[in-house]
Amino acid sequence: MSEIPEQVRAFDLETDVLVLGYGCAGAAAAFEAATGGAEVLVLDKAGGPGGASALSGGEVYLGGGTPIQRACGFDDSPEQMAAFLRAALGPDADAEKIELYCADSVAHFHWLADRGVPFTPSLWDAPAWVPPTDDGLMWLGENSWPFTELATPAPRGHRPTAPDFGGKLLMDVLVAAAESAGVTAQYDTAATNLIVDDSGSVLGARARRYGQTFTVRARRGLVLTTGGFVDNDQMLAAHAPRLLGHTKVSAGTDDGSGIRMAQAVGAAVRHMSTGQAGIALVPGLAARGLVVNGRGERFVTEDTYPGRIGQAALFDQDMDVWVILDEQAFEELPEAERWGVRPAHVAETAGELGDLLGLPPGALTATLTRYNEFAAHGTDPDFHKAPRWLRPLAPPFAAIDVKAGVRPPGRGSARRGTGASVFTLGGLHTTVDGAVLDRTGTPITGLYAAGRAASGLHGAGYISGTSLGDGTYFGRRAGTAAARRS
Amino acid sequence: MSEIPEQVRAFDLETDVLVLGYGCAGAAAAFEAATGGAEVLVLDKAGGPGGASALSGGEVYLGGGTPIQRACGFDDSPEQMAAFLRAALGPDADAEKIELYCADSVAHFHWLADRGVPFTPSLWDAPAWVPPTDDGLMWLGENSWPFTELATPAPRGHRPTAPDFGGKLLMDVLVAAAESAGVTAQYDTAATNLIVDDSGSVLGARARRYGQTFTVRARRGLVLTTGGFVDNDQMLAAHAPRLLGHTKVSAGTDDGSGIRMAQAVGAAVRHMSTGQAGIALVPGLAARGLVVNGRGERFVTEDTYPGRIGQAALFDQDMDVWVILDEQAFEELPEAERWGVRPAHVAETAGELGDLLGLPPGALTATLTRYNEFAAHGTDPDFHKAPRWLRPLAPPFAAIDVKAGVRPPGRGSARRGTGASVFTLGGLHTTVDGAVLDRTGTPITGLYAAGRAASGLHGAGYISGTSLGDGTYFGRRAGTAAARRS
Fold first, then answer.
1. Are B400 and B442 within 8 A, CB to CB?
2. Given this model, what pLDDT does residue B79 score?
3. Among A9, A118, A429, B356, which has the minimal tally of Cβ within 10 Å of its Cβ?
4. Beta-carbon contacts of residue B154 (< 8 Å; ≥ 6 apart)
5. Is the peptide bond before A91 cis (omega within 30 degrees of 0)?
6. What pTM was computed for the model?
7. Residue A273, Cα to own-chain centre: how many angstroms?
């Protein structure tokens, strides 16, 4: 999977900086490299730019006191933002990357806004995957336990102003910015291997387009922004088997090719077993009810960022998860926000409902009795759900089967199947400037990486907006570093 | 971390098969290679043979109808053994390795017995880490839920007859057998890198002894049996961060060197995030009481193999784990089996005890009330603990803090600190014959691996006896394959 230059008589193409993959990290890297004076070529194996970024909700995790936060009345600081991220992205989040990311977050907000990414200064104030409005700010668990005890809460989910999922808009803006800066791109073009010299420095890559192969010299540096590996079942089996068999969150090109090409020239990887799990759970219903496991017990704070519920459901409960509701909880939520879910079972008592779900006898009754007793007093000593969402549930009770899936608006296909949608978080070991490290911790000359091809801010945890956030931020740093080398 | 032969003018030593690491896998590989007609040299960085194997309890997971099982009155079959292991070592256990391992298990028992490993035909019939007797057979969770529903239970933990921990005896026998077969060894000798030819075939290794380096040609093959990487905090941080900071189960030489040397010549790895967690929990007390988490809830079947409780405690409950007992449960267990544990708190009611432990109000009372009600009827619908261990607990109640550690007999140091003792399960990607595969799935010519340097039978799960078991079994296969190549 690598070649030495003796095998390459002459390069077919030359550029200063070669970027492989045109998602958010690739676009940010290409823009900064071009702005730094480099000639930049981007290759993407898809028919156009965007990658998984363009299919996403578009949230970017930003804080420390952005204009949108201040317009909505929230104080914030880089320190509080970092304290939240260390906990939410842990265990074993990257403290060095988090510190820089938070210190520069207001500046990064302005960079995005200056490129033309619009943010509306209003807040969506309830747990959500993607709010049904164009509010530009949302909570991502900062105001839920246990984070309320670890950092001063402030909402930090920044959403591009778009009718629905903002990822397409974000990518349109970033690609236009890169093009304006002089970046050129070739599509339907897959890099197949890196080309190194005798000392192991990366000189360029070989790529294939419509069956033809050609070589590209990267005079200053090569940036891998090829995405994660959720589309590669062989890599999942080897490194992140818990993610196998679930719906893949990707544009179909997250095949781990950049990770493997870099490994072939000696690159180290980190945290390859980690992943995010979105689940078919309607946050507005979960917050108003109970989320219980196959033993009828609560296991998570229901009003937190739903991705945290997803990780707990997939990794700790094997997706054996139910949402328990009463009629009022169901009817309080506007139909448009229910995403087509219907109760799987309804019963007059918690005992009957538990029997219908196959829970251990009496378990659901015990859970509901305890919850209702505390909710009547406006307190939740078990999971500290916010008082706003605490209300004793009244019969009849209903259960929603999370495995049955939902139908989010603006998406062609339902999230069905296993009830979970996943992507990978692990990848190449990089410095804060995107330099790819080998297994001894030494940078591989000429090679950079960012986005989900790299191990970024994350340990095992995940919060929406940190992929587009660390992809664009560390993509920028990698592009800048690659252009600077001569 | 690798060299090509141009750098090596002439090898300082030559042998047919070079084995790196003299634990159970290395001894088994060396014996079989020598028996197969090869000249065999073993290098170990410690001052003598044994490695982590010699410090272990000595249990070997064997079944399918061994003479010891039959003498104790148990029927067993390779199919039932495989069904248990697929579940207990999963998710994502290696089905192909398990099938072979189980099909050959009676033969492997005889191989061990023929070498001179003694097994006493009597059963220790209670959950235990290491029984306080010389009984040669023990349960390792086969008779606990959910495995009772997945496979016909039979005890398969085979213990060498020894006054205490049998690993030393096992290694003494295996090393003596290897020496009798003509194997030679050099100690205090650390391999530093592999030597490959232009085509990537492994020719040998460079090693260092007392500051001198020398090269060894392996004419037929090189077998890596260097152990896992629990002693390498940098590798843990990158691949298995949940294991950081806990007591390391090793002889101090599980530094991942074999994994890294093989990666440097292109080897692939699997399941690097997985690990086993022993915890400071007295199985005889846990089975007689309740094991609860920081919410006062049970989370595991208390009478199962204690290593399963350990994995659940470390990976799912962050070691926030208590054993709840009454006086009868404590006094039923002979003092010698209590390993010095003392209750951290005693109280007249479950409510008071829960308050002392900082559990949510009423949670422990609810758990204990529910348990006692079911126990009075001899049934446990939540975790299916065997009726033998079900008895309503009576006040006063006591709580043991698992983090406080225990003092097992025959061990110098207490398992204190975090309450957990860990080692790694992931490693090199190998075939059933120990051939190390590169990242394209192609064997690296001349390179073999077994034991914890390789990813063996295991997915994320672990059962005692499967390390010595798959180390010796697949070590044998690797040694045979290496000797056969010419």
1. no
2. 98
3. A9
4. B63, B69, B74, B75, B76, B80, B81, B142
5. yes
6. 0.87
7. 15
Please tell me which of the candidates B91, B263, B269 has its beta carbon nearest to residue A242: B91
Where on the phi/psi map is residue A92: left (φ > 0), alpha (ψ -120 to 50), or beta?
left
What are the pLDDT digits (tens) for B77-88?
999 999 999 999
Q: Are B270 and A459 inside 8 Å of each other by CB?
A: no
3 state SS of B394? coil
Query: Distance (Å) from the C-alpha of residue B154 to the closest C-alpha of chain A?
Result: 27
Which domain, by its residues, includes B352? 281-404
Main-chain phi, psi angles of A48, to 5 degrees: -170, 180
Confirm or reject contact between B358 and chain A (CB < 8 A): no
Count structural domains, chain B: 1
Residue B124 is assigned to a structural domain of this protein: no
Q: What is the pLDDT of residue A2?
A: 67
pLDDT tens digit sequence for A396-434: 999 999 987 765 554 434 345 688 999 999 999 999 999
Give domain status of residue B358, yes or no: yes
Q: Is residue B6 part of a domain?
A: no
The reply to whether B291 falls in a domain is yes
B-proximal residues of A, 262-301, CB under 8 Å: 263-264, 266, 268-274, 295, 297
**Strands of A275-279's sheet in order across:** A247-248, A420-424, A275-279
Gap from A76 CA to chain B (nearest CA, Å): 30
DSSP string covering B219-233: EEEEEE----STT-H
With a CB-CB cutoff of 8 Å, which residues 301-320 of chain A face chain B? 316
Report in angstroms the alpha-carbon separations of B380 from B92, B300, B310, B351, B388: 28, 12, 21, 22, 11
Q: Do B241 and A91 touch (CB under 8 A)?
A: yes
- Phi, psi for residue B183 in degrees, rounded to 5: -70, 135
- Mean pLDDT over B43-60 rounds to 95
* Secondary structure element (H or E) that encloses residue B102, with its range: helix B95-103
Residue whose C-alpha is closest to residue B43's, from B172, B188, B176: B188
Give the SS3 label for residue B321. Answer: strand
